């Protein structure tokens, strides 16, 4: 015997078969629950279980025990043990995802392993997306790769930061061969990670690696905004060479309110005079009161899991911690 799930915001009901996950059941019946990695690593399919119970074969990486106790679940791993009422908020006002042929405008190196990819969307395809969302690049073999937008929302031009993964079909192969004018099949916009201006809280942004990309999109959307809250940006990397936008970020202070930038290196070397260690530990060392800010965490799943647990333990509001884990898709 299966169970019924009611998605409050969409007033949609669907059936879940025995031992089927909420997400698998939704997709089988054409219900578009937000999702990405499908194996519990990214947190995109986060839902609030308003009524009913679910369980897991093991606790997913993108979920903490405290969140489970507060009724938060991951649809891709959660198996209902009763009828459910779930709440999944849409990512603000944005276009429905569409697959289009984007035109390459530029492919420029930002450092030893990061490429700045700029795409032009088709004329007449005026997409509305939220800072923090991402796109999928569709590969010839039917797979896709996900990349967060690194620029403020623009109907026609979109920027991305693509880290080279040794042996990666797209990041270590196809992207090096791209030239202006080439076409890429992409699906855009996707994801529920976004800036929540309605919170009206100070912002603490914590990123590792190219997790900076959606954070940059959010901060660019706040530049020259009279309602911009105070912003702390903590960017974690291994070596100074990995801080591919280090000099540019310093200039953001001229256009953001009470902006503080703290780079943190885990393998700094003798020539580095800045902060060292893990980026989440730098936040804990600097900020005594974690109850007031909204936190945006993006990058390594391990950083995000550790940061969530530590920040909540120091009084951060669970309802104001937003995250996007950068995980590799399984074949």
From TrEMBL:
Keyword annotations of the record: 2Fe-2S, Iron, Iron-sulfur, Metal-binding
Name the UniProt record assigns to this protein: CDP-6-deoxy-delta-3,4-glucoseen reductase
Keyword Ligase attached: no
FAD-binding FR-type domain boundaries: 97-196
Cofactor: [2Fe-2S] cluster; FAD
Alphabetical list of Gene3D superfamilies matching this protein: 3.10.20.30, Nucleotide-binding domain of ferredoxin-NADP reductase (FNR) module, Translation factors
Highest taxon of source: Bacteria
Sequence ranges assigned to domain 2Fe-2S ferredoxin-type in this UniProt record: 3-92
InterPro entries: 2Fe-2S_ferredoxin-like_sf, 2Fe-2S_ferredoxin-type, 2Fe2S_fd_BS, Beta-grasp_dom_sf, Cbr1-like_FAD-bd_dom, FAD-bd_FR_type, Flavoprot_Pyr_Nucl_cyt_Rdtase, FNR_nucleotide-bd
Keyword 4Fe-4S set for record: no
């Amino acid at each position: 015997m299966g169970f019924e799930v009611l998605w409050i915001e969409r007033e949609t009901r669907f059936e879940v078969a025995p031992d089927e996950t909420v997400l698998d059941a939704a997709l089988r019946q054409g219900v578009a629950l937000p999702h990405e990695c499908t194996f519990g690593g990214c947190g995109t399919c986060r839902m609030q279980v308003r009524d009913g119970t679910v369980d897991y074969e093991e606790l997913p990486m993108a979920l903490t025990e405290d969140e489970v106790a507060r009724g938060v679940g991951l649809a891709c791993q959660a198996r209902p043990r009763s009828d459910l009422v779930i709440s999944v908020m849409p990512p603000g006002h944005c276009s429905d995802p569409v697959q289009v042929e984007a035109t390459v405008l530029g492919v420029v190196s930002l450092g030893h392993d990061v490429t700045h990819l700029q795409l032009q969307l088709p004329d007449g395809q005026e997409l509305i997306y939220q800072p923090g969302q991402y796109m999928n690049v569709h590969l010839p073999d039917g797979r896709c790769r996900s990349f967060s937008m690194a620029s403020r929302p623009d109907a026609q031009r979109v920027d991305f930061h693509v880290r080279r993964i040794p042996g990666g079909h797209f990041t270590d192969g196809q992207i090096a061969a791209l030239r202006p004018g080439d076409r890429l099949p992409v699906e855009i916009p996707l994801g529920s990670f976004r800036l929540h201006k309605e919170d009206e809280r100070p912002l603490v942004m914590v990123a590792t690696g190219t997790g900076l990309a959606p954070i940059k999109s959010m901060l660019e959307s706040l530049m020259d905004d009279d309602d911009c809250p105070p912003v702390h940006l903590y960017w974690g990397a291994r070596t100074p060479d990995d801080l591919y936008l280090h000099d540019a970020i310093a200039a953001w202070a001229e256009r953001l309110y009470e902006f503080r930038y703290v780079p943190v290196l885990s393998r700094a070397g003798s020539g580095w005079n800045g902060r060292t260690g893990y980026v989440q530990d730098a936040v804990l060392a600097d900020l005594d009161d974690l109850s007031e800010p909204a936190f945006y965490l993006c990058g390594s799943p391990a950083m995000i899991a550790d940061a969530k647990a530590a920040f909540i333990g120091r009084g951060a509001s669970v309802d104001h911690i937003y995250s996007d884990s950068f995980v590799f898709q399984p074949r």
